[in-house]
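Journal club prep, notes for RB
We'll compare a predicted complex against what the paper describes. Inputs for the MIG case:
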Amino acid sequence: MVTRYLFGSPVETEAVITPVETSQGFPPALNVLQQKEGLLSFSCKLEEEDIVYGLGEAPGGINKRGHLYESFNSDDPCHTEEKKSLYGSHNLIVIDGSRHLGMFVDCGASVTFDIGYTDPEVLTISPSVGDFVLYTIEGSSSEDILHQFRKIIGRSYMAPRWAFGFQQSRWSYATAEEVRSVVSDYREHHIPLDAVYLDIDYMEDYKDFTVSEERFPEFDEFVREMRQEGIRLVPIIDAGVKIEDGYDIFEEGKKNGYFCKRQDGTDFVAGVWPGRTHFPDFLNKDARRWFGEKYKCLLDCGIEGFWNDMNEPAMFFTEEGIKKVKSYLADFDFSDQSANHYFELTNQASGLANRREDYAAFYHHIHGKFVRHDLVHNLYGYNMTRAAGEAFEKLYPDKRLLLFSRSSYIGMHRYGGIWTGDNQSWWSHLVLNLKMMPSLNMCGFLYCGADLGGFGSHCTRDLLLRWLALGIFTPLMRNHSAYGTRRQECTCFGDSKAFEGIISLRYRLIPYLYSEYMKACLEDRLMFRPLAFQYPEDKIARHIEDQLLVGESIMIAPIVEQNAVGRTVYLPEDMKLLLFRDAQVVREKILSKGWHYFEAALDEVPVFLRKNKLLPLCEPAETTDALDFGNLELMSFNDREITYLLYDDDGLSKNYRMPGNQRLLTVKEPD
Ligand code: MIG
């Protein structure tokens, strides 16, 4: 049962789209505290056995207990353990243990979640403003609660099937020639590949919806050429619009008042990649329609997918910030030799980016109201992606396009997916990728993934191989790396046979992964689940954080430690270990419920098949378009006749419910 509590008069976020009855008064399950005038906090006791799930894209474990989190979309490329915020704000949590209770704080401003951080036995939620909606969700289990939640926020975005292929990115492939050479390297090494990303350097001076004539001459021809190679190009779109006379996007936005404003009504200015930019007012529906339609120029060139970046929005500096530093420097007292004085000096300059003061210095026009940005900050990236999603719906009502975003809020899950931003080539970020998947699913984000191999820092061969061995299970499977780091394409680490094997296995798994993904979308369920959801009575399974169920048939237990040749795994029931090398099973073993140690070399991928479940595999191919779902090998470990519902559609249109899309696969009882 979902109950809605309204506080003050919040801006409508449209995260929840199914009407929910509003209750007067306070939620009975929570203590309501007055932080200060007009500001409320909600708290409740955590019992020893309670696990707290949720928060989507957040640092920390699957169990969020013990930490402090702040929902405030942040462009912070250093995702260390103590961080409170990342790029998305997904204010859903579920208490699971002594009781089952879900809470969703629908609020575009900062919200703090103290989940047993200050007091290990107390959970406190503190919105930074008095205007918000709180939903409580009661149910028989966490999965039941999450299912109810997903029902009220609406169906998740569904990516086209080609977006399940392997995708290669880098900041940047700056010329058509460079893209061609990446593609031909992959083809030469027989490593499957479906898409190549265009980062900011494809544009003319970082201007949205332009393509550099010099570096990508005859762009539509080039897009066509790549399609013939089986490759889709996916360009980046940044939030900031370059201020430049004669640039149509700038001129139109200025003329129509579509940019965010300062309090005095002038267009707000921030420094980002193109230099001085304006931010489109994505919270204004007219501006949203205008910006969304701009994607058409690239769609008309044959582009079928986009990634929206810098939409927290990220700012490198503002003129106001620089003025402040300048005046600080002008008054700098050289006679004061204290360390604090020195630290203050360095903080001044390094604190220029993404200042909270700057987020409080510009405004949106929302349904006739002038709303200060920091009060709706977390909705910005969501609405940029919504702008694109709504335009696609109009331009191509029956075509699925690829769309995902860096910054997000619940509600955006209806328009696109997420990549989890600027991680690093660190083993700990491989672990973070693993742990984030179920939390993202809980909040409705099913098409997601991390930069495989890590964005920042220099990646090593062993890290990339182990990371890909996890990445082959995530819907978005993209290798991406930052400017200045070592090249990270799978062809850059000597012998590429191991990469070919792991990525080919991904393609063999697509019938299963795509089925499980589509069913999860259509039925408002999770694709990645903590073990606790499937085995609630199993006290050990309840606390396992480095193994996940992927769909109904398999469990994964990735090796996430440098130099490890194997690892221990807990089986909550009898399972069959399938060890793949070169996309073939090279070892298989039925293991009984309990703890086991297994080994897997760098070129091997372990998959645990659940008893009486079926795993369909197709033949590998170099692109998703070449996969044959009609010719499947059925892996099973069964003592009775079993079936599997395969979801298989054209992968491109929106005819999800066609009767022919579901096919029952059967394996007979063994003799
Ligand atoms: O300030 O476009 O997260 O994926 O490669 C960096 C360049 C801007 C941040 C994105 C990253 C992308 C990079 N962008």
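Talking point for the session: The pocket of MIG is lined by residues 171, 199-200, 236, 309-310, 406, 421-422, 455, 480 (CB under 6 Å).
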